[in-house]
């Protein structure tokens, strides 16, 4: 896909950050962890449905771009949520019930360059 050129809108991305310890240390089934990411992504879009970036992201249905990153543990995930909140970045921290366990978070779709600096320390989820 071509990069956004001068005068064109910037590339929208929905970032999802998943706790990698759920799979690698706590032995959650991979399908259960993927489900958590799906819940968070859907919730973030639902909560920010009327946002212009969300609407543009949804309008480009066949070219949606998501990036799934890994947080090492619950503390790192919750700390990221705090950083995003302080920076005014709209997101949804998904807390699995009834366990009350934060499992992942998803940002509303937004320009990559606006949020990537806040996510630099997180690597692609493996």
TrEMBL record:
Pfam families: PTH2. It catalyses: an N-acyl-L-alpha-aminoacyl-tRNA + H2O = an N-acyl-L-amino acid + a tRNA + H(+). Keywords: Hydrolase. Its EC number is 3.1.1.29. Coiled coil: none annotated. InterPro entries: Pep_tRNA_hydro_II_dom_sf, PTH2, PTRHD1. It is an enzyme of class 3 (hydrolase). GO terms for molecular function: peptidyl-tRNA hydrolase activity. This is peptidyl-tRNA hydrolase. The gene is PTRHD1.
């Amino acid at each position: 896909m071509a990069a956004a050129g001068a005068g064109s809108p910037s590339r929208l991305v929905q970032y999802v950050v998943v706790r990698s310890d759920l799979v690698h240390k706590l032995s959650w089934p991979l399908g259960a962890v993927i489900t958590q990411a799906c819940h968070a992504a859907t919730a973030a879009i639902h909560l920010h449905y009327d946002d212009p970036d969300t609407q543009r992201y949804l309008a480009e249905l066949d070219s949606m771009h998501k990036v799934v990153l890994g947080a090492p543990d619950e503390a790192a995930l919750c700390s990221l949520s705090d950083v995003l909140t302080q920076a005014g970045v709209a997101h949804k921290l998904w807390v699995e019930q009834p366990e009350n366990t934060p499992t992942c978070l998803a940002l509303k779709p937004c320009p990559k360059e606006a949020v990537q600096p806040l996510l630099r320390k997180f690597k692609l989820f493996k």
